[in-house]
């Protein structure tokens, strides 16, 4: 499988999107989403220079992290919904958690991280679409959650994440992204700065997301190819291919 070619094609599209709106390429992080794909694919991308990968299932993260423990510069971002009883594995394996959506989860993670002597970068997941299948906190609840996170010393709030509306209507998707930019401003006002990351954009909408200020695009199928598993529509409504 020509993963290096897929990576190069996505890279070119990121560069073009940045150019269209006068942004520097370095202002956008490409986060490959390797969920459902084998560790051989991850190793292949690692060989091509990729150092961060994202997973959305705790068990899959733990299994892949263990299997690939020899790749010393490998970092994992966990982007899936987390239940408190699985906080331990995320605390042990993830370098970043992008789907924080409750104080209960923050508390569970913090406790596990304290035990391990680790810290974790976290992003609050925001439900910008209101669609039934979506996780995340309502836009109105984001500032309060961000403030409350100050209690947990092992968590560092680095930004906000969203999965935009599942529609081909660019105006609707763009509004989800603009909601995020507005929320980041409110969080910064409340906390006196920080919260720089806007993780938004997937295979189907990452160029639009960059044009709306994304600093992290989470790209799965455009790099690794189509996924096939039963809960796919829940986890990745915008998957292409
Ligand atoms: C699967 C997933 C992605 C990547 O989706 P693609 O459409 O394959 O690029 C991005 N973000 C989240 C939260 C996901 O679960």
Structural write-up:
- The protein is of the alpha/beta class and 241 residues long.
- It has a single domain (3-240), classed as Alanine racemase (TIM Barrel, Alpha-Beta Barrel).
- It has 10 helices and 8 strands.
- The protein has helices at 3-20, 39-47, 58-67, 87-93, 103-116, 142-148, 170-191, 206-211, 221-224, 232-235, and strands at 29-32, 52-55, 75-78, 96-100, 120-126, 155-162, 197-199, 216-219.
- The strands form 2 sheets. Strands 2-3-4-5-6-7 form a 6-stranded parallel sheet.
- Strand 3 (75-78), helix 4 (87-93) and strand 4 (96-100) form a beta-alpha-beta unit.
- The protein starts with a helix and ends in a 6-residue tail after the last helix.
- The model is unreliable at 231-241 (pLDDT under 50).
- Pfam families: Ala_racemase_N.
- Keywords: Pyridoxal phosphate.
- Belongs to the pyridoxal phosphate-binding protein YggS/PROSC family.
- The modification N6-(pyridoxal phosphate)lysine is found at residue 35.
- Pyridoxal 5'-phosphate (PLP)-binding protein, which is involved in PLP homeostasis.
């Amino acid at each position: 499988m020509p993963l290096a070619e897929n990576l190069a094609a996505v890279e070119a599209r990121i560069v073009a999107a940045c150019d269209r709106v006068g942004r520097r390429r370095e202002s956008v992080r490409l986060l490959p989403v390797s969920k459902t794909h084998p560790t051989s694919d991850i190793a292949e991308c690692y060989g091509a220079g990729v150092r961060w990968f994202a997973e959305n299932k705790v068990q899959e993260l733990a299994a892949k992290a263990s299997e690939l423990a020899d790749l010393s510069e490998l970092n994992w971002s966990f982007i899936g919904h987390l239940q408190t009883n699985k906080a331990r594995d995320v605390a042990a394996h993830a370098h970043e958690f992008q789907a924080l959506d409750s104080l209960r989860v923050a508390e569970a993670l913090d406790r596990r991280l304290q035990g391990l002597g680790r810290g974790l970068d976290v992003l609050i997941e925001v439900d910008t679409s209101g669609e039934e299948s979506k996780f995340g906190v309502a836009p109105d609840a984001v500032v309060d959650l961000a403030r409350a996170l100050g209690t947990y010393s092992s968590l560092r709030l680095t930004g906000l994440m969203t999965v935009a509306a599942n529609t081909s209507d660019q105006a609707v998707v763009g509004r989800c992204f603009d909601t995020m930019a507005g929320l980041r401003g409110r969080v910064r006002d409340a906390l006196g700065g920080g919260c720089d990351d806007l993780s938004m954009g997937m295979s189907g909408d990452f160029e639009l997301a960059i044009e709306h200020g994304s600093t992290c695009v989470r790209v799965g199928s455009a790099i690794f190819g189509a996924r096939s598993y039963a809960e796919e529509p829940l986890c990745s409504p915008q998957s292409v291919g």
